[in-house]
Specification:
Elements: H1 2-7, H2 25-31, H3 37-47, H4 52-59, H5 64-76, E1 80-85, E2 91-96, H6 98-102, H7 104-128
Antiparallel strand pairs: 1-2
């Protein structure tokens, strides 16, 4: 992990406890288990504070309702902060907290992992998919 991880306290060895049933590492996996949360954290980290409409435009494929739910979840988990401005019309933007900023390195690492192993994961999944659900499968053909 290196110097950056050490500065953030990420090199701390918990003696194997970090991946036990009641471990602290599970918090991180649960916090980012939603499909959009890591995308939002990444975009806010790369672009700085953003309004919801700008996030929708930048992300693409996310509805306003789903974005709102994700932002509330991220705020609840202490990864983003919501800032409302006393203006007419009302204006709100979201930015990362210290904890949210600290997730950028692990999110980038997961992105690199995905870039390298997505095809292998999809191939493994295809081997277990029912014959009817396999892409390009034909009845009676041998896999």
């Amino acid at each position: 992990m290196g110097a950056e991880a050490d500065e953030q306290g990420l090199d701390e060895d918990l003696g194997g406890r970090e991946y036990a049933a009641d471990c602290q590492a599970r918090v991180a996996f649960e916090v980012l288990s939603n499909r959009w949360d890591s995308v939002i954290v990444y975009i806010l980290g790369e672009s700085g504070p953003m309004r919801p409409r700008a996030l929708i435009t930048r992300i693409g494929g996310i509805s306003p309702k789903v974005l709102n739910e994700a932002l509330r979840r991220l705020e609840y988990n202490g990864l983003v902060v919501r800032r409302a401005y006393a203006e007419a019309p009302p204006r709100v933007d979201y930015s990362l907290t210290e904890a949210g900023l600290a997730l950028l390195g692990p999110i980038r690492a997961m992105g690199m992992w995905a870039g390298r192993y997505t095809e292998a994961v999809l191939a493994a999944q295809a081997r277990f998919a029912p014959r009817e659900a396999r892409p390009h499968s034909r009845q009676g053909s041998v896999p």
